[in-house]
Amino acid sequence: MDAVREEEEHEVVIVGGGIGGLATALALHRKGLRSVVYERSESLRAEGSAITILRNGWRALDQLGVGDVLRDKAILVQGGQGIWVDEGNQQQPIPFPGGEARCLKRSDLIKALADALPPETVRFGYKVVAVTMDPENMFPTLTLNNGSSIRAKVLIGCDGSNSVVADFLGIKPTRLFALCSVRGLTSYPNGHVFSPELVRIKRDRVMVGRIPVDNNLVYWFVSVPLSWLDRKFPDDPELIRKLTTKITEGFPSDAVEMIEGSDLDSLSITHLRYHAPWEMLVGRFRRGPITVAGDAMHAMGPFLGQGGSAALEDAVVLARNLGRKIASLSPYERGKEIMTDKIGQAFDQYVEERRMRMVRLATQAYLTGLILGSPPMSITKFIAVIIMAILFRDRNEHAKFDCGNL
Ligand SMILES: Cc1cc2nc3c(=O)[nH]c(=O)nc-3n(C[C@H](O)[C@H](O)[C@H](O)COP(=O)(O)OP(=O)(O)OC[C@H]3O[C@@H](n4cnc5c(N)ncnc54)[C@H](O)[C@@H]3O)c2cc1C
């Protein structure tokens, strides 16, 4: 933990140093705006082992100036196929967006974003426990876990699906899907034999997905109905591996061997969460000079592989609007309350630009989660399939989005 004075003051404070927080700090930095990120972990945190970035995410990474560094870290993914074990290992192509898609180690992504920031932008080991706002000048104050306070002119909450900033804004808490996901990496020092595609293998109500990161490393995930597990998830990686091996009994041998041979320190198990899409449609995402980005605004489950890319898009759109507004302020205005109004206007534009994008992504992800999590032949599943067919004729439309220039 770096030393923090009793009460510090900063222009722009970001809570959370995950993908969203680091990308937002970097986007602001590229617009000439300095920010400070408060992250509760003691070092860069990359839980979840790997992440698929589709072409909309690569566009955002290019705007942030780290696309090319990251392209060297992962091979191109060229399509997808589904295998249905219950139907005699029947194979079918599955919708997979065209254009650039790669699966990155999360640590590579986080590191590339952090390395591009000015030194000491991220303060590790500080958990924000409360947010308040001065009723006179609307400036936010954050209380940290060590009892000290931070005053800011601008506050951006990138603190994930259990966000203290979202809570301050009155955003409804995330809900739980009836699904859990186990994620891990398996190393093949002599190279693996898998094709460069996303493969989903389904048996009963369990799905195993795999996608190569490079020629020696494969990312995999297993989604399983919550009702199949004990409520208490194991923390011990050895137990996670044992549990996952048991759940995937009867799957093709290469999938079982991949899980048995996984790197223990890459394993994690997560109960999947989401913000209800209908609440996003009307939600208030800005109060005074305070807003949110990433999962704090739109947690959506992993089914489209878009939550992280959407956080990168948020960063670009937020910094574009904030940069434009701050550039238009006179030096006199920058120090005064009038700034709070202008920041508020910039954040309203940001929310306006993002709202329908989030609602569409979250709706498609929500319907996919319902379809995967509901028992076969259930009425819920039937209705979700019909709504999906009506609203999302092109299942890959989501990856064609362009967040524009920084
Ligand atoms: C199983 C699974 C698979 C996924 N796969 C993909 C994928 O393939 N592609 C994709 O694009 N997305 C994927 N996602 C979604 C993606 O992981 C998230 O959307 C993304 O990580 C959101 O980033 P974030 O920075 O908003 O939040 P987070 O990654 O949750 O980061 C929040 C950060 O804030 C910190 N923090 C939290 N509270 C505080 C506090 N009070 N004070 C200080 N710091 C705090 C945390 O320590 C953390 O570092 C997946 C998600 C899951 C669950």
From TrEMBL:
This protein's UniProt keywords: Membrane, Monooxygenase, Oxidoreductase, Transmembrane, Transmembrane helix
GO molecular function, one term: FAD binding
InterPro entries in the record: FAD-bd, FAD/NAD-bd_sf, MOase
Bilayer-spanning residue ranges: 12-28, 365-392
Limits of the FAD-binding domain: 10-324
Recorded family membership: Belongs to the 3-hydroxybenzoate 6-hydroxylase family.
PANTHER family in alphabetical order: FAD/NAD(P)-BINDING OXIDOREDUCTASE FAMILY PROTEIN, MONOOXYGENASE 1
Protein's name according to its UniProt entry: Monooxygenase 1
